[in-house]
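To whoever picks this up:

The nightly regression suite flagged Alpha-D-ribose 1-methylphosphonate 5-triphosphate diphosphatase as changed. Nothing in the input moved, so I suspect the structure step. Input below, exactly as stored in the fixture:
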Amino acid sequence: MPKDHPLMSETLTLANARLILPKGEMTGRVTLQGGEIVELAAGHAVPAGAIDCGGDIVAPGLVELHTDNLERHIRPRPSAHWPHKPAIVAHDAELAACGITTVYDAIRVGSIEGKGGVGWSRYARDLADELLAMRAAGALKISHHIHLRAEICSHTLLEELESFGPEDRVGIMSLMDHTPGQRQFADLGQYATYMKGKHGLSEEVFQEHVRTRQALGQAVRDAHEAAAVAAAQRLGAVLASHDDTLVEHVVRSAGHGIALAEFPTTEAAARACRSHGIAVMMGAPNLVRGGSHSGNVSAEALARAGLLDIVSSDYVPAALLYAAVLLGGIWGDLSRGMATVSRAPAHAAGLMDRGMLAEGMRADVIRFRLIDGVPVMRGVWSAGARVA
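Regenerated output under the current build:
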């Protein structure tokens, strides 16, 4: 939302609400003005001109660090490509409706050329340009940042990384290795089910796909990983690991200075992250569904073991708030659950001006109520402007 948006100068008070604060809750009101939170006050009083929330929950806007949702909009089917700009607008509106007020849009860098199963076409630079242009034009409701998903085992990673510079404001760079037989796809039986179901591969094509991807990984992994780490430093991006499975993976991540682990696949890896001071992020769909679709460690198990810090909507934007509510139930503390989708991800990305209800913070605020345990959105404000 542009800084000079007229709605940002209006004063708005949400009163008689259940406010989710950094360390607990209180019944009270929050006042937004000039794009910031300017006052918090306790009590049931509803001042003249304020909105009576009738006990609804008011919490900080959600912060999403890793979502594939934009990619889903630009390619709604494996063989169907959608125009990028309307896809960006639709993606933005969907996130706003789900209470997400800050997003790091995951864009893959690194494509797969030639034969051997499913290829990945190049698209990152063009999509980033269009996203940045739409943001500059004021076409978007919420705060968008770029997250580059560096596919280490690909053909074009080095060339694609070179096309990005500090002016692109890349916020996160994640190191991804989707080579069959390790990390997320350590179980080749699960991988076969996934690939055949999604892409309709025959057994022969699937086996060739596995062989070519494993050979590519052996050829480029070390050099490409080093290049991606260097690119993150050049771009000023937070560096994240992805799908750490073994303790050795975490030790390697720590050596790169990584402070954020996306979706570790085992409890051993999550515990190793904790010992190295690396924040653990898990997927909301994993928590909502009761387990990983790839057969990896469950988010609930990590939550109950005290090994879960941040939640990402991953591939279902609406899952993010629901996951926070579920965590609030698991931990008996809704404030702690909400922190995994607001304050913790904001701080992990280096954004210290948002993610909690406090005076002086950016006025990213959501209002919802629980109906049969399900959060139902009643209003979303981004930098003080209502967007849903």
